[in-house]
Amino acid sequence: xVVEGYHDAxxxxxxxxxxYHGADKWADDMQRQRVLERAGWVxxxxxxxxxxxxxxxxxxxxxxxLAERGIEPMGAEDAPRSVHTEHRVVSSFTEPAx
Length: 98
Hints:
Elements: E1 2-4, E2 10-16, H1 26-38, E3 43-47, H2 48-53, H3 55-68
Parallel strand pairs: 2-3
Antiparallel strand pairs: 1-2
């Protein structure tokens, strides 16, 4: 997930764990992260097990990191209108009747 704020501030948020993909994908994730970091992205990672066992501490760390990056919650009325936002509704394909 990517959380964005004003002035192009953004934070890539990743939650890792075997439920999402196994250890074999870890090297691919790290390679992708290094490429994006070279492009200026900042990552925040947690493990699913830590999220479950220490939810409060993990969320506090995430909120602290967001605050350090200057990314704050904003309502729709505060959202900059110059930012392109895309909204898609995806539904399953239904075969037309013959």
